[in-house]
Structure formats: structure tokens, C-alpha cells
Amino acid sequence: MLKFDVLTIFPEMFHPIVNESIVKRAQEKKKVSITIHDLRDWTNDVHRKVDDRPFGGGPGMVMMPGPIFDAMKKIKGKRKAHVILTCPGGAPFTQAKARQLSKKKNIIFICGHYEGVDERVREELVDESLSIGDYVLTGGELPAMVMIDAVTRLLPGVLGKAESLESESFEEGLLEYPHYTRPADFKGKKVPAVLLSGNHKDIQAWRKAQALKRTQKSRPDLLKVRP
Ligand code: ADE
Q: 137 and 187, same structural domain?
């Protein structure tokens, strides 16, 4: 079982992912557990303050280290856990990273906010910072949900055979080939004949060529050989 813990100032945001669909089923099947922790439970003042102005000046607010350190001491305890900070400046979250994370036993997300998180949190508590894309969201909650979803569906026994992971987008460095189902003729739009031919070799070759064509068109960067 993979245990996710999430430290956030918006615990309610996680209800849809924790309580719905495949991620919900994965919890029922004991493939994952997800515990959401409210960072404000580790504040001591009446305003339940988690942020303050940056030293050195500048715009915005910075998440204070105190509540995060206290929360992490309690949440992590003596366990070995992989701690991820969600922030736009992190390394890119990819399918390969999702696969890597799916091998872990304990993952803790710290959801970043405001201008950022006090650097001592990153230095002392965080194993890696991850970003879900080159854009800035209002907080790290959606990124944590995205990562929980992408990792959970890779765990053995979470997806049924029908939702097989083989040859889906990114798994072979290519986007997925086009899919068709009944009817074979939809308002005059016909399914490519090769898919009805029963010739598996031809079908495979067609799918590979289509995947390449699609990748070339939408994501040519995936085809570049990296140094
Ligand atoms: N927080 C704000 N924007 C983010 C992003 N793109 N990825 C991860 N965390 C974020």
C-alpha cells in the first residue's frame, strides 16, 4: 500500500479526488491511503497565521517554516517518506516521474502557496520540488492532486484489464494512436479499413505510424534525441 499524506491550507479541495472515481476505489481496495492535513492545525495564534512578509522586501507573502516543521514532525514521525514540495519552479512532473513515485511506500506533499515557502523548509524537509507545467497556479493543491491521480493509476491492481496501461501516451515516448469503436460507419465517416482487416501485424504498423504522426504534429519535442 502506498500512503500519501498532504499538508495544505485548503483541505476541502481534496474531497473530489479522495472521494470519487478510481482513486476512491484504489483506497477501498487498500492500494493507497490518502490523509489530508490542515496546516493551520499547527498554528498557535488566533488568526491561524501560516505566512509572513519576505525578509529583504518585495511583493507577496512567504509561508513560515514554524507550522510546516511542526506538522512534518508529526506527520512523518520516524517513517521513511519521500517529501515533495509542489511549486512552479520545481522539476517537471512527467510520466517517468509518476512511475518512479509509484514504487515508493510513503509520499508526503507540501502544497506551496503565496510567493513561496521559506527556503529552510526546502533545505531541511523536502526531497524534491515538482511542477506540473510551465504556468503559475494559485497554489500547490491541484498539482498534488494531479500527481496523486497519475501515480495511483499506475499501482498494480488499480486499473482493470480493460483500462490497460500498455501503449498509452508517453509510455513509449510517443502519443497514443487514434481509437475507433462501433459503428464502423458513422454518418459516412468510416473507420480505417486496416482496423477491420483482422491482420494484427498491419494494425500494429498502422498504429505505430499514426502515433508517430500525432507526436510529430502535437509534441515534436518528444521526438528530439536528448543529449
Ligand atoms: N504551484 C503553482 N503553480 C504550480 C505548478 N505549475 N506546479 C506545481 N506547483 C505549483
A: no
CATH code where residue 209 lies = 1.10.1270.20
How much distance in Å is there from the Cα of 72 to the middle of ligand 1?
A: 21
Return left, alpha or beta for 35; rule: phi > 0 is left, psi -120 to 50 is alpha, else beta. Answer: beta
Q: Does any ligand 1 atom lie closer than 6 A to the CB of residue 8?
A: no
Ordered per-residue pLDDT tens for the chain, 227 residues: 999 999 999 999 999 989 988 999 999 999 999 999 999 999 999 999 999 999 999 999 999 999 999 999 999 999 999 999 999 999 999 999 999 999 999 999 999 998 899 999 999 999 999 999 999 999 999 999 999 999 999 999 999 875 666 667 787 789 999 999 999 999 999 999 999 999 999 999 999 999 999 999 999 999 987 66
Residue 107 and residue 203 in one domain: no
Centre of ligand 1 from the C-alpha of residue 78, in Å: 29
* 33 and 137 fall within a common domain: yes
**CA 133–ligand 1 middle distance (angstroms):** 7
Ligand 1 proximity of 132 Cβ (cutoff 6 Å): yes
Q: pTM to 2 decimals?
A: 0.93
188 domain-assigned: yes
